[in-house]
Amino acid sequence: MSPSPERRRELLGIAADVFAEQGYDATTVRKIADAAGMLAGSLYYHFDSKESMLEEILRTFLTELWDGYDSVLRAQLDPRATLEALVTESFREIDRHRAAVAIYQKESRHLVAQQRFQYLAESQQRFEKTWLTTLERGVAEGVFRDDLDVRLAYRFVRDTVWVAASWYRPGGGHSPEEIARQYLSMVLDGISVRT
After folding, report:
1. Which residues bind DNA (predicted)?
2. Which ranges in 75-117 belong to alpha helices (H)?
C-alpha cells in the first residue's frame, strides 16, 4: 500500500520547515524524521533521499508560482495592472509556500551547481525576463517614468516582495492581498502625502 498523498504533503511541509530553519546542508533525514515524529528509516518509505524531498518542495512551489504568473500574463493587462497582479500572486505564493521561498532564497545559488537542480536557474531567468518585460513595456507605454532604470527597479521590487518570506506568517493580521496592496501603494505611489 502506497503512502497517502495527504501524508506525503504533510511530510514535505515538515521537511520544508526544517530545511528553511536549519539550512539544507545541516538538515539530515533523521532531523526531518524527528520533527515528523517518526523513525528515520520510515521516512524512506515515502522518499528516497533528502534531495528528493527538497526537489519536490521547490518544484511544487515553482509550478504553482508559474501557474499563477502565466494566468496573469495570459490576461494581457496593461503594464501597471500586470505588475500589480504579479506582486499579488507573489504574496499568495509566500502565503502558500513560505518555507519553500525561504529555502529558495538561501539555497538556490549553490543548488544550481547540481544537475538535479538546474531548473532553478532556468526559472530564475524566466522570472527576470517576465518582470523586466513588464517594466520595459510600462516605460514604453508611458505608464512608468521614462527615467526609470528598469533593471534597478526590477531588483528593488523583487527583493522588496520576496524578503517578506523572512517575516510573513500565514494566518497573521494581514491577508496576502492586503500586504500586496500596501506594498504596491508604497512602490507605485511612494510614502509621501499626496498633494
Report:
1. 28-47
2. 79-96, 98-111
